[in-house]
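Example with several molecule types.
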Amino acid sequence: MRFGVVVFPGSNCEQDVITACRYLGLEAEYVWHADTDLSGVDAVVLPGGFSYGDYIRTGAVARFSPVMGEVVRFAERGGPVLGICNGFQILTEAHLLPGAMLRNRGLKFICSDVALRVERSVCQWVGTPAGSVVHIPINHNEGNYTADGETLARIEANGQVVLRYCEPDGTRAPAGSAPNGALDDIAGVCNERGNVFGLMPHPERMVDPEASGTDGQAFFTTIVERLAAV
Amino acid sequence: MASYEVFVTYKRGIFDPPGATAERALANLGYDEVESVKIGKYIRVVVQDRADGLSRVREMCDKLLANPVIEDFRIVEVGEGRG
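Resulting structure tokens for the full complex:
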């Protein structure tokens, strides 16, 4: 089981993902965005950062990097794909995930720890029981998730809403718990099949208890256990 | 050569954070007549002459310059020599 972590020009969290995987005893290697070979890889991670300077829109240019054609085919075959922060933005631009990202409601870049509620979903990357609250940092300027009403109803009905921003006790504030203004407090969504997952928080930063905490570990280990069980 | 001006704006119903901020700021400055402010993008594309020039620019917008999930775009041909 090997993770391939795609490096776009302007990615800056690829080393964190590799370090997190290796800390957990998982194999992980870089995949350069201009490569088109994913044959040695069992799961793909699109890391955080500012690919192509976030020009035009976040993820809009990275979506056309040579490797992305292969990532789309990998996802269509059922291969597991995880997009973290800018990786999530790229997955929405590539239409592998529903919705789109807007600037944060308060126009501020937000870097803070947030509470997240795990929702009941079809996501293959998450095994944490629904209703659990995990604490993971966010670090972004465009995490204000949006989708039209029809899409929101569909992803909700299909179990594609994976994570929601919440209060520390797991409830949602009446005015919304998303610090960035995200629609319906949505912090992470998956595709219908559950193999493609995007989230704005950075689980790779919550893996080592000496440095931060362990709430992010399951976001990498669950998929490994599931693939091993197949 | 032909020049095209592209205006990219959020679709109706999509919240526009910079526009809402400008709207509040103008109200604070006393411009009580302001009903709404929307902020979008202006892009100028200069291309070599070809019969399907406009439809190609439209394609560029669909593919890259705008995100059809949240944005609309309007293309204005501004003619030769103004690139």
